[in-house]
Amino acid sequence: MDTMRDRFAPVVTRLLDEDPRVAVVLAEIGADGFAEAARRHPDRVVNVGIREQLMVGAAAGLALTGLRPVVHTFASFLVERPFEQVKLDLGHQDAGAVLVSAAASFDWPAGGYTHMAPGDVALLDTLDGWTVHVPGHPDEAETLLRHAIAAGDDKVYVRLSVQSNQQGLPVDGERFRTVREGRSGVVVAVGPLLDAVLAATEGLDVTVLYATTVRPFDGAALRRATETAGTDVVLVEPYLAGTSTAAANDALADVPHRVLGLGVGRRELRRYGQIEEHAAAHGLDARSLRERIGSFLGAATAA
């Protein structure tokens, strides 16, 4: 199976050919995938070199001229390093762009902590007006990329990962999807963690919601689920643990409830192994998730 990032350059290249508003801004990473597109559209495929702050600033400038810039590099260099430009050049100027990241929280462990960004969604959450897509499969990534680029002049973040579920599901860029119904709790699985959550909750009497768009947070779907499954909620996110806890609390503010936020821990792992080892170390493998979800929801979750 190809990866989400394998889909990125071909999809955006087709959109460059089809839509004269689309532009691409790179900082070396990913440039090879756009070599032919750059020959066909030299004015709309821009590689600024290893200058991530300039990359975001250039994208904002293109947006202010009426173009729809797609900006791509690793998440740590796309959100964290040029955060001031994301905040000011895009946010303060109300300029729209599509930020498309790679490497996610720990997709390339050999690259070390400089190439990991578990705090990216939480950091964007300090800003107003961002839509955040977290696909869990290459098919979903393609759908959400097209949705994001077509979304007028909005500010959109698309978080790509080499981690993937076995099968893609229909996604609409807005709502959570119910994939399992139960009566003793709600588990929200985000993006590529759906398969692990389904394995972890096998035989448990819980509702599982699947989220590939986390901002805006679909509080209405969560409320509907709690009407039959109860108001104990577990959030399982492939980035910093607790990133969406406040959003879930806000959705259920008028009813007694409990929320457990699971995700990447704050403790830095200084021994870089394989992706699966990092997932297990953060308690995001199926076995660990079953223990943590079961402990929180209690024995009543047994079907």
UniProtKB/TrEMBL annotation:
InterPro entries: PDH/Transketolase, THDP-binding, Transketo_C/PFOR_II, Transketolase-like_Pyr-bd. It comes from Streptomyces levis. It holds the Pfam family Transket_pyr. PANTHER family: PYRUVATE DEHYDROGENASE E1 COMPONENT, TRANSKETOLASE-LIKE PYRIMIDINE-BINDING DOMAIN-CONTAINING PROTEIN. This is Transketolase. CDD domains: TPP_PYR_DXS_TK_like. Signal peptide: none annotated. Residues 2-167 form the Transketolase-like pyrimidine-binding domain. SMART domains: Transket_pyr. SUPFAM superfamilies: Thiamin diphosphate-binding fold (THDP-binding) (SSF52518), TK C-terminal domain-like (SSF52922).
